[in-house]
Amino acid sequence: MTNADNPRVLVLAGGLSHERDVSLRSGRRVAQLLRDGGLDVEVRDLDPELLPALSADPPDVVFPLVHGSTGEDGSIRALLELLDIPYVGSTSAACRLASRKPVAKELVAAAGVATPPFVTFPRGLFTEIGSSEVLATAVAGVGLPLVVKPEDGGSALGVTVVTRAEDLPEAMVSCFSYGNAALVERAVTGTEVAVSVVDLGDGPVALPPVEIVTEGPYDYDARYNAGRTEYFVPARLDEDTTAVAARAAVAAHEALGLRDLSRTDLIVDENGTPWFLDMNVAPGMTETSLFPQSAQAWAAGGGPSFTELVTTLVRQAAARG
Question: Which DSSP string corresponds to 29-97?
Answer without folding.
Answer: HHHHHHHHTT-EEEEE--STTHHHHHHHS--SEEEE---SHHHHSSHHHHHHHHTT--BSS--HHHHHH
